[in-house]
Amino acid sequence: MNVYILENAFFTLLLSSIEVFPKECLGLLVGSKGRDRYVVNQCVVFQTAERTRNEVIYPRDQVYSKMQRFLKEYMPYFSVLGDFHSHPYNRLEREGYKPSDGDIELMEYGNVYIIVQIHKKRKRMIWNYNPSEQTISGTIGDNFIKMSAWLRSRDNDVKAVQANVICRPAVGLLGIPEWLPS
Ligand SMILES: [Zn+2]
Prior knowledge:
The structure is a single chain. By secondary structure, the protein is an alpha+beta fold. The chain has one domain (about 1-165): Cytidine Deaminase, domain 2, CATH 3.40.140.10. It has three helices and eleven strands, in the order βαββββαβαβββββ. The strands form two sheets. Strands 1-3-2-6-7-10-11 form a seven-stranded mixed barrel. A two-stranded antiparallel sheet has the order 4-5. Strand 8 (about 130) and strand 9 (about 135-140) form a beta hairpin. The longest helix is centred in the middle third of the chain and has 15 residues, at about 60-75. It is globular and about 45 Å long. The structure holds zinc ion. Zinc ion binds near residues 87, 99 and 115. Zinc ion binds near residues 99, 100 and 115.
């Protein structure tokens, strides 16, 4: 499964995660869904979320259904694909891009979930795809950021499976990666 993050969505994920750091941000993913892909066109940050250091509390079902109604009426080619939230840390956490047990519990089959890991950067890094992790990462301003995408597995309710994050506008941000054809 591939999750395409388009430019608008990518910058909202970045900026909303940076804005509230070291608190957690949360919002909806809006776009279109195919058999083997999700295309995330927009991200809508939750204004109603109560943010604390360790969790975000928000009227989830209410916001979901409000947004679904809005899209049905005004943008019928889009739907709510799932949601995103950030994982802010004080330092590098190798597994910080993975969903917590609580995150997985809230996942619904058919939706997609993006996790934005964020912490203060140690050195400047060009944005790139990490094939072994199926993530994208890089630095922006003072921050290191890594994004991953997850789905509820069909057969096993207690597991989440990872999807490939494909984000053309991210790759090469802050520079040109060597492997890109000129
Ligand atoms: Zn989480």
